[in-house]
Amino acid sequence: MRSRLSPLGLVSLLAGTVVASQDLSQYVNVFIGSEGPEAGTGFGGGDIFVGGTRPFGVAKVGIDTTAVDWSTAVLNGGWTPDGNVTGVSMMHESGTGGSPKYGLISQMPLTTVDAPVNVLDNLTYSQPRVGKDTATVGYFKTQLKSGVTIELSASRHSGIMNYSFPEGEKHVLVDVSHYLPGSPGDPNGQFFTNGEIRIEENGKAYSGYGTYIGGFNNGAPFTVYFWGEFSEKPEKAQAFSGDNTSPMPRYHNHDNGGIAQAKFGKSQTITSGPMNDRIGLLLSWKDGAASHIISRVGISSISADKARSYIQKEIPSWKLNDTVTDSVKEWNEDVFSKVQVSLDDSANMTHVRLLYSSLYFIHMMPSDRTGENPLWDSGEPYWDDFYTMWDIFRCTVSFYHIFQPEYYESMIRGVIDIYKHEGYMPDGRSGNWNGLSQGGSDADNVLADAYVKGLRGGINWTEGYLAMKKDAEVTPYNTFDPTDLTASTKEGRGALDDWKELGYVSQDRSTRCISRTVEYALNDFAVSQVAKGEMPGDVETYLNRSANWQNIWDPSVTSLNFTGFLAPKLSNGKFNSSDYDPLLCDGCEWQSITYEGIPWEYSFVIPHDVQTLVKLMGGADTFENRLDLMFKPNMSVQNLGANGAGITTLINIGNEPDFATPYLYNYINKQSKSVDQSRSLATQYFKDVAYGIPGNSDAGAMNSWLLWQMLGIYPIVTQPNYLLSSPWFPDLNMTINGNSTLRISATGLDEGYYVQSVKINGKQWTKNWFEHDDVMTRGGHIEFELGKDEKAWESGEAPPSPGHVDRN
After folding, report:
1. Which of 247, 419, 421, 582 could make a disulfide contact with 425, Cβ separation 3.0–4.6 Å?
2. Looking at the predicted structure, is the pLDDT value of residue 461 above 70?
C-alpha cells in the first residue's frame, strides 16, 4: 500500500538517524494535565511540570508557586494554575503525587526590597500572575503583577532566564534555602539543611551548594552544586543569612519568635553554619529605564565547577531563543520525529496533538544523571527520579524498550548498579535515595519485561538476576517511616516474611495485604522468567510462588451478585470476613487492605495467569459479565480522591492497577469488547485540554497508556506478548530499536473502529495477540481492517497465561 504520509511528514534515514523535515513540537500541548475538573485549579489534575526541560533531562526549569489551599495543594511540579510565584528553580518532578520533592536553586526577580519584603519569607514577596502563562516545548513565559516578565528555557543540566523589568528598581534574589514545601504536619516534608554561596566576578556570577532532606521518599540529605551568572554586572551584590524558622525536625531552628530578618554581610562567601541558617544573595541593578537581565544557571551533583562547565557546553549563547531552538531540535530528533502520521487536511488534529503530547510527557522522567553520581564511581550509567516503578512498570517501560532502546538499556544498567552498591534496586528513587515502595519490588517486573523481550546489550544479567533474587528472599530492614510503621517503605518487599512463611500477606501483620499479595505474585513470576536463562534450577520455586495470590481467593465472598473475590486473610489462615466489602478499601492508601484500587479491581489484576482467574470466577461467560460490570456507570461507592474525580465506575483508569483490565476480553476471544471499553475510557478521560488526564500523570504513566491505546496495541508486562486493540490513525510509522520501522495501518477507520480482520507482515492473523519478535525486534507491518460493526474475527488461540498454576 502506498504511504499516506503527507510530504511534510516524510522522514529521511541518514546513517540510522531519523531526521525530521518538520517541527512536530508544534503539536504538543504542554498544559495537558495542568488542571483538575475545576477550571483554574490543579486538584484532581496531572500535577505536571510546566517549564523548560529536555528528554530525561536533569534540569527542569520552571516557576514555583504557593498553595492556595493546603487540602487541595498540588505543588509537586512547581507550577500550579492558581498560586503566586515564589521563584524560578532548577529542579522539579512531573506528574507525581505525595509530598513535594525539589524546587531547588532558586532565583526571584523583584522590583522592591522595601518592607514588608523579607528575603527570608517568600510570602512577603510572592507575586500574582497577570493573564495566562505561555508555554511550548522548550519555552515558558509568565508575567508578574510587579510588571516583570519571566521567560525561560533549559538544556540538560542548565537553564536560562530572561527577566524583563519595568522602569524602576531591579533586583534578583538568589535563595539557596528555597524548596517546595509540604503541607503543615506532612511526615515526609522536605527541608533545607545547609549550604554555601559565594559571590564571583564582582557579582556578575555566583557559586555554591545546597543540601536538602526529605520529600516524597523521606530521603537522606543530598547536595546540589550550582553556578549562576548574569548578562550584566549588578551595581550591588550582598550575601545574607538568617535564622531557619521552619519547624524542621532534628535541626536547629529559631523557635516561637516569628520569622527573623536577614542579616547582610560584607563577606564574599556565606555558609549556613552550625545553626543551619538560611542563606542567599540579593543582587541589585541601577534604577532606570525598562531593561532585560538575563541569567544562566548550571547544576551538578559533583561540583560548582562542573555546573559551570554545563553552562559553557550547553548554553553558550545569551540569547534565550538560541536555547529554545536547540531544545526544540533535540525533542524533534530524539522523540517526535520517530513517530510519523498524516498531517494533511484529512488528519484528526486532536488525535495528532494527543499523540505528540503523550510522547512529550513520558520523556520527563526519570532523570539521566550519568556522570552525575555523587555516591560511587563505577563507570555505569546512573539514573534518578524513578517516581515510581509501581507507576511505570505496567506499560511505560515497554514503550521505552522499543522506542528508546539506548536510554532503556542505560536505565536498567543503572538500576542494577544501584543494587550492587546499595543492596536493593529501587521501586522509587529521588535525590539519590531509594523509596517509596508502594507495593512490590517492581524493578523485578521491569527487568523481566526487558529480559523476555531479548534486551541484552551491556546489561550484566547475572547481577540483574541476583538483584531480583535478593528482592524475593531478603526482607529489608524496617525504616519506621510514618507513612507505614510496619515495614520498610524504602525498598524491597516489606511484607516478605509473611509471603515466605504463609504464602500470602496477612491482614493482622501487614498493611496493603491484598494488593501486596497480588504484586508479590507478579514479582515472583518475573523472577521465574529471568531464572529460565540465568538460573534454571530456580524456575519452579518462583513459578509456584507466583500462584500464591490464589491463597487469598475466598470463594464465599459475594458482591453485586458475583461470588469469589480476593479477601483479607489473617496469619492464622482464616479469612477476615467481618465487615469485608470488596467495593471498599478504607481510603486505598498505605494503611488499607488495598492500594489505589478496591478489591473488586485487584481481583482482575493477575496478568500472568488470567486462565486461572477466569476459572475461579466461574468460567468465560461469568468472567465476561463480571468484567462488563466494571464499566457500568454509578457503581462505585468508594471515595476515589484526586485520582478519580468524576469517575463513577468500578474501574478507575486514573490509577495504574486497572491499566490492563479493559483488554481482558481478549483472553476469552471477545476482542471487540476490549476495543469498545478501552476506546470509551480513552475518549472520555483523555483530552487535548488542561484537564486532559484522569488524575496524576505519574511520571507519564497515564500518557503511555494512551499511547498504546492510540497504536492499537497493549503490552502484557513480564511477557513478550501484546494484545491487539484498534488503532487511531490510518497510517502510522514508528522508528523502533534505533533503525527499524513499525508500521500500523488501518483501512475503514472513517466508518468505525471495530476490527474486521488483521494481517501481520502480510500474513492473515487469526489471534488477537502477537509476540515481540513478530514485529518489535526487526520492525514489521500490522494491517487492520476496521468497520462500524463488532465482529468475532479472531479464531485462533487466546492469549497465553505463562504463569498458570492449577492448585485445585
Report:
1. 419
2. yes
On whether residue 360 sits in a domain, the answer given is no
Q: Return the bridge partners of 239, or none.
A: 265, 281
Give me the CATH number covering residue 261. 2.70.98.10
- Say if residues 429 and 435 touch (Cβ distance below 8 Å): yes
pLDDT score of 355 more than 70: yes
- Which domain covers residue 104, as residue numbers? 31-334
> Residue 440 is which amino acid?
G
Q: Which amino acid is at 644?
A: G
Clarify whether residues 396 and 447 are in a common domain.
Answer: yes
319 and 434 part of one domain: no
Phi and psi, residue 528, nearest 5°:
-65, -35
The Cα 409–Cα 306 span in angstroms is: 26
Per DSSP bridges, beta strands 168-175 and 104-110 are antiparallel
CA distance 29 to 782: 29
Taking the C-alpha atoms of residue 677 and residue 671, their distance in angstroms, rounded to an integer, is 10
What is the DSSP secondary structure assignment for residue 794, as one 8-state letter? -
Count of Cβ atoms closer than 10 Å to residue 256 Cβ: 6
Whether residues 408 and 485 fall in one domain:
yes
Distance CA 520, CA 505 (A): 9
Same domain, 153 and 241: yes
The total domain count for the chain is 2
- Looking at residue 71, what DSSP letter applies? G
Cell of 215: 520529600
Between CA 349 and CA 356, with CA 350 as vertex, the angle to 5 degrees is 85
Residue 218 placed within a domain = yes
The neighbour count for residue 467, using CB atoms within 10 Å, is 24
The pTM is what? 0.96
Domain boundary residue among 575, 590, 621? 575
Q: Of 560, 575, 590, which residue constitutes the final position of a domain?
A: 575
**Beta-carbon-side half-sphere exposure of residue 327 (alpha carbons within 13 Å):** 33
Q: How confident is the model at residue 641 (pLDDT cuts 50, 70, 90)?
A: confident
CATH number, residue 387: 1.20.1050.60
CA distance 707 to 354: 8
Q: Which residue has the cell 531480583?
A: 468
Axis-axis angle for helices 461-473, 513-534 (nearest 10): 150
What proportion of the chain, given as a percentage, has pLDDT over 90? 91
H helix runs in 503-602, sequence order? 513-534, 539-545, 599-602
Q: Domain check: are 180 and 294 in the same one?
A: yes
Q: Extract the C-alpha cell encoding 216.
A: 516524597
The answer on 218 and 125 residing in a single domain is yes
